[in-house]
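In this section we walk through a basic example: taking a raw amino acid sequence and producing a predicted 3D structure, encoded as discrete structure tokens. The instruction is simple. Fold the sequence below.
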Amino acid sequence: MTGRIAFQGEPGAYSHEACIKARPHMEAMPCDTFEDVIAAVRSGAADQAMLPIENSTYGRVADIHRLLPESGLHVLDEAFVRVRISLLGLPGAKVADINLVRAHLVLLPQSANFLKLHGIKGVSAADSAGAAAKLAKTKVAGEGVLASSLAGEIYGLDVLAEDVEDHGHNTTRFVIMGREPQHERRGEHGMITTFVFQVRNIPAALYKAMGGFATNGVNMTKLESYMVDGSFTATRFYADIDGHPEDPGVRLALEELDHFTETVDILGVYPRDPSRDI
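The resulting token sequence is shown next.
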């Protein structure tokens, strides 16, 4: 596959790493915001979008559930990236030379034990890959960056230590989105259907809406709620289920869901990534 895939962040960000892993033959296109990523695909400047949706340590990515239903795009695939944190420094530097590191706020507590062990102070930055780019320009002695090894390669920094995170399970799940849906069955590990719905304002509406999935043996792997337009009475739900809409159980469950909801919108039908089982 050729073309462009847009991602949020600077070159070397974990979203960039996801693009290289999942779409190695596409040109990765950095964007400032998630909205810019979506706009790039809608305008034709990019063919696909790589968007982080949740992290195994920190939960869902802020604002992403609000953006996806209104994006006009469709989920084509999912991708998982294990967040491996490296200590980057200026060429020739050693771990003992580093007294301060900059990194995105979420990376600092993940490497707390390593920083404490080496007496290194952590300072938050808006973007870890951006911090790597800045260090490469400013060349401040004694400073380092916590980021991906890819960022080190891009900006000419040395990898002083690898896998400095405290726990080895931190993984980010991404969805790959495009302008046209692809609902055909594909892949060898089953299918995932992602949809959003808004329940009717009646007693036990959510309970009744979910009943069809239980009675039809459909496994729901994700269910999250968020408010619509700041209203306390209008709640939208985001869900992932195992299966394809044409599967008998899924078809019946979705039909039952329709009876108890104001709206149901399928965001994507795509192959189940085997990384889910790791």
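Looking at the output, two observations stand out. The longest helix spans residues 248-259. The mean pLDDT is 93. In the next section we compare this with other chains.
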